[in-house]
Give the backbone structure.
Amino acid sequence: MEKTRHPTPPYPEQQQEPPGKTAEMKPVPDHGETSYKGDGKLTGKVALITGADSGIGKAVAIAFAREGADIVISYLSEDDDARDTAKWVEDAGRKALVAPGDIKSEEHCKDLVKRAIDELGGIDILVNNAAFQRTYAGIADITAEEWDETFRTNIYAPFFLSKAAAPHMKPGSSIINTTSIQSRQPSPQLLAYASTKGAVSNFTAGLAEMLAEKGIRVNAVAPGPIWTPLIPSTMPAEKAAKFGENTLIGRAGQPAELAGAYVLLASDLGSYMTGAVIPVTGGEIMI
């Protein structure tokens, strides 16, 4: 289906097996492929982005590359989507390191940082973006195994990666975590996911204090409802069709609409920002 920049609900009813594929979404999300224009804000930087195969991570990878950064594209197993991200990074004249694997493993997280250093020359920006979510009607339906998987993906992995990356980051480097409006306005059917996002916001604040003396800034972006493969692969089709309609703007956000917030936090434009959470929520209030 042809991509529409800012489509409004209802969307076609659709369902995918997790983690979902971009090409099968209707409408196809906008990652800024034709719209984002960079001007060198991240020239010479190396960024490691988790979940960079699709959704927000893909949009951030495209924007960072057009701002001059080389990119480690971390993802689980969605090879086609990851290769497409790499193509856009390389079209911007930057290096793309495609790195599949499971960030729930601390050893894999260490390896991602090592590859960034060995193959791209260092690590200046870490974007902890990958996430896992499922919807359930009641707490009895959530298994201990799924609770553990959600926490290991959404909060253990940012801890593993930050711990591995920080010793190699120079003053002026940046760690950016993706939290969520769910950290302040939890939906009961997203109990596990929302709990991890509350933890991510707290982790951001604490790590900002811990790394301030090293000159490493730590911030977060809090998306509202964003149209990514996570939605049709984790929500009932009838709910996905109405996704985002209750925001003040009246629609789900597109991944491209978040990229600027990450560029701000990664670049010198955000040099006086640490411990901050930037809401990009379509008008849903986070106070």
Summary: The domain at 39-280 is CATH 3.40.50.720 (Rossmann fold). The CA atoms of residues 207 and 218 lie 7 Å apart.
